[in-house]
Amino acid sequence: MARRKWFDRAIYAVCRSESPFGIRYDLAAKACEVTDRFDYREDDDNYFEQPGNLFRLLDEGARQRLFENTARGIKGARRETVERHIDNCAKADPAYGAGVRKACEEFGAL
Question: What pLDDT score does 12 carry?
Fold first, then answer.
């Protein structure tokens, strides 16, 4: 909920802002005219399709780097946090979750 309030304030600020030179940001204003017609909260329950699609575009080497970077980055977090992240990765793509889990085990993050 706090993220949504921040987002609303940010959009409001961008839509009504001016540059330091007093020139109105016309493109931002036009964008706000269009985006004001849509309720971004309407489909706020699909968080996993886009990362899953991106993961499936990666080649095997890029996937391995992603797994290892994730494991190194999450090392030191509480176990339940790591497990929740792995579950979220698996919702995007089962191979993504399995790869992150394996890398976390190898790097000692689990």
Answer: 54
Phi, psi of 18 (to 5 degrees): -130, 155
Distance CA 67, CA 48 (A): 17
**C-alpha count within 13 angstroms, C-beta hemisphere, residue 105:** 6
pLDDT band at 47 (very low <50, low <70, confident <90, very high): confident
How far is residue 67 from each of residues 22, 72, 89, 107, measured CA to CA in Å? 47, 9, 10, 10
Distance CA 70, CA 77 (A): 12
Provide the pLDDT for residue 45: 74
Phi and psi for 39 in degrees, rounded to 5? -100, 105
pLDDT at 22 over 70: no
CA angle 9, 43, 2 (to 5 degrees): 30
